[in-house]
Design a protein that fits this description.
- Helix 4 (about 150-155) packs across helix 6 (about 250-260) and helix 8 (about 315-335) runs antiparallel to helix 9 (about 340-365).
- The chain contains twelve helices and 25 strands.
- By secondary structure, the chain is of the alpha+beta class.
- A hairpin with a 5-residue loop joins strand 22 (about 385-400) and strand 23 (about 405-415).
- It has a twelve-stranded mixed beta sheet with strand order 20-21-22-23-24-14-15-16-17-18-19-25.
- About 20% of the residues are buried.
- It has three domains: about 25-145, 2-Layer Sandwich (Copper Amine Oxidase, Chain A, domain 1), CATH 3.30.457; about 150-305 and about 380-470; about 315-365.
- Keywords: Signal.
- This is Copper amine oxidase-like N-terminal domain-containing protein.
- It comes from Sporosarcina luteola.
Length: about 475
């Protein structure tokens, strides 16, 4: 149960609309679809009709890095949040950012009509369509940044020294065991500085009808977190690793590599006033990201976090039991020289006492916890199965400063561990501000003076720890 908590989201309506002058009878053979130099494979391919090329909507926009979805009525929506296009066969309409267009749709009966004309696509911001001379290939060029590494280098170089952020995370967790099912809403205000390293965070968390608010500081003085009316401080060995990881990001090369490793499945779109970064992720990409994360941070995580203080040492109980049996054997040999009647009586009494002693020793030993038993992190992760059902994050970047403006996203994943299943759904939104305006973050002296160092082996609250320290 604790593992699960620790690790701790119809049939398509048949389209039957067709325009008389663009029917299947007017179609010629299929063509190849190439988007930004990448050939798009699949059953649906472009074809010529009435001197225009018709391009499959879903194949095109999936390859172009857009989020593609379809509702029960068959309406296809493609978006990178900056540009959203709806293709509705039922309404015979295409809308762009909520505004109706004059474009005809659907254009053909073929494959339920989810095709868009090259003429329409050429008028759409960020797209250009050309056809090869032999009319065998359709080339679609988008406004995506082609050299992602070069762009990320510029972003890293422009990294602000300080900023503020407001984040909202709306999370729903559904488990096949009712105890773990919950809805949670988190509102987070953060102020961050890079030199010197500092973070101040205020978080409000609502779970059901219960609301909890907390504050935390992270500076070179340590990591401090509010617990009720008191404050706790993480042990030095923990904050040392966190500081090391944070300081490493000050190196532009290291930061670039870290950014690339945590940005699987990204597309960067260039518009007049902004860059739009979209990130989708497959199960394979997620696993790759997790592997890279563990290789980066595994050595920085203190060993104390991987000590199982609740493990039961079964072998110790077995050894005790064996020792008791050996003692019983010795006693039996010593009593073998006694008279027959006394021997039988003595054997019975000794055996009874020995069995009771063995059982008592075994029970006591099994109840004891073993200090220092190491847990293999890879083994823990190996027991957890995570399936990415949906992952789409969008970040808006100011084109002049290359600073982030906002981020929005939706994730859904299924986690299986120890025979139990949890579905986790998240809606994420955030805005960024006060670039290079946040002053140095300092932990108030009163908090430093009165904070109680957190005992990772204890479940006591900060108030209880404070009382113990006072005594």
């Amino acid at each position: 149960m604790r593992k699960v908590a620790t690790w701790v989201l119809a049939f398509v309506f048949v389209l039957s609309f067709a325009w008389p002058n663009m029917t299947a009878s007017a179609q010629t053979g299929s063509m190849k679809l190439v988007v930004d130099g990448v050939e798009v494979e699949g059953y649906e391919q472009p074809f010529m009709s009435q001197e225009d090329v018709l391009i499959p909507v879903e194949n095109l926009f999936n390859e172009a890095g857009y989020q593609v979805s379809k509702d029960a009525a068959g309406k296809v929506t493609v978006t990178n949040t900056y540009l959203t296009v709806d293709f509705s066969a039922a309404d015979e309409q295409i809308t762009v950012d909520g505004e109706a267009t004059d474009a005809l749709f659907p254009l053909t009966l073929k494959n339920y009509g989810n095709y868009v004309s090259g003429e329409f696509l050429n008028e759409l911001e960020g797209f250009e369509v050309t056809i090869s001379e032999d009319q065998q290939t359709v080339n679609v060029t988008t406004n995506r940044v082609q050299d992602v590494d070069a762009f990320l280098k510029k972003m890293v170089a422009a990294n602000p020294n300080s900023y503020a952020a407001k984040m909202t995370i709306d999370q729903s967790m559904v488990s096949d065991t009712e105890e773990l099912s919950m809805d949670m809403l988190m509102d987070i205000d953060m102020s961050i500085t890079n030199n010197p390293i500092g973070l101040y965070q205020k978080m409000s968390m609502t779970i059901g009808e219960e609301e909890v608010s907390t504050e935390s500081y992270f500076t070179e003085d340590g990591f401090f977190q509010q617990d009720g009316e008191s404050w706790t401080k993480l042990p030095e060995e923990l904050t040392a690793g966190l500081l090391e990881a944070t300081a490493a990001q000050a190196d532009p090369v290291a930061q670039l590599e870290l950014t690339k490793q945590f940005m699987k499945g990204i597309h960067i779109f260039e518009y007049d006033d902004a860059y739009i970064i979209t990130q989708s992720m497959t199960n394979e990409e997620f696993q790759s990201m997790m592997d890279e994360a563990m290789s980066l941070f595994g050595d920085m995580i203190p060993e104390e976090l991987f000590i199982d203080n609740e493990a039961v040492e079964v072998t110790e109980a077995t050894d005790v039991k064996e020792e008791q049996k050996e003692e019983a054997t010795i006693v039996e040999e010593e009593t073998a020289t006694e008279e027959a009647a006394e021997e039988a009586t003595t054997d019975e009494e000794v055996t009874t006492e020995e069995n009771a002693a063995v059982e008592e020793a075994t029970e006591e030993t099994e109840e004891e916890t073993v200090e220092g038993e190491e847990i293999d992190l890879d083994s823990i992760l190996g027991e957890v199965s995570i399936s990415i059902d949906e992952f789409f994050i969008v970040t808006v970047i100011d084109k002049n400063t290359l600073f982030p403006v906002s981020t929005n996203g939706k994730t859904a994943m299924t986690i299986k561990v120890a025979g139990e299943t949890v579905t986790l759904n998240q809606l994420i939104s955030g805005i960024f501000s006060k670039f290079n305006e946040v002053k140095e973050i300092k932990v108030p002296e009163e908090i430093i003076k009165n904070a109680v160092i957190l005992d990772l082996d204890s479940e006591a609250t900060a108030e209880e720890l404070k009382e113990e320290a006072a005594e």
